[in-house]
Amino acid sequence: MIRTLPGPLAALSVAVVLLVGATGITPACAHPPGEDGSSTTAELAKAGAHAAAAMPEHVSDHAGDEEEAHAHNHAAHEHGSWAKTGFERFLAWLGAFHPAATNFPIALLLFAVLAELLYAIRGKESDRTAAHYCLWGGALAAAGTAVLGWFYAGFDLAADDPLLAAHRWNGTFVAVLALLALWLGVRNKRGTAGDGAYRLGLVIVTLLASFNGYLGGRMLYGADHYEWPRAEAHEHDHDAAMPEHHHETAGHDEERTPGNGG
Question: Would you list the DSSP string of the chain?
Fold first, then answer.
């Protein structure tokens, strides 16, 4: 073929052939004898092995997240399982507002305690008025939230687990005690009851309402929801990821070394 080319082209062709032979570069369309592209297959197999080794952990974490989300979703919608008739389903639907309603009695009772504390320190009648207004709102909200809680969980007391039973009956007691504190507050404002009993009842019902909020959050989100995040878990994950990174870097260096030496 080279003989049929003009002189300059023939010389150029010979130079290219000699250069390729000297550098050891193999054309992309050719394969070494006996291998038939096995190096490419080996690289693909190696990449597949890395992906297969990393896949189980990722799939396990994803499956764990799905199971946890399913458990929370199941707990969120389990409240309607007790309803059989149309009216009961309506009550169960009203009970779905129970988790949101729990914020109001806790917040209002806390502000009632704060306003009463300011009144005890400063003696301003406006603080006492604010305390009574917050107590009215907190007591009525506690009673309504307790009723919604019964609609939310149903009336099958035998099916209650210990945590649900504690939350149910403590919430019911909080509603009764809040109405009692309101009665004492009204009498105190009229001058027929002392400050001691009224303030003691207000503080006790506020503490119990806050504790019951904790029990409700524990039911929905788990016992470890309020735990302090542990830094060593992130450090362990970082340390566990380092060897794989170094291994891949070393592999790339080894692949580049023969080419550079050639």
Answer: --TTS-HHHHHHHHHHHHHHHHHTPPPTT---TTTSSHHHHHHHHHHHHHHHHHHHHHHHHHHHHHHHHHHHHHHHHGGGGG--SHHHHHHHHHHTTHHHHTHHHHHHHHHHHHHHHHHHHH--HHHHHHHHHHHHHHHHHHHHHHHHHHHHH-S-GGG--HHHHHHHHHHHHHHHHHHHHHHHHHHHHHTSS-HHHHHHHHHHHHHHHHHHHHHHHHHHH-GGGGSPPPHHHHHHHHHHHHHHHHHHHHHHHHHHHHHHH-
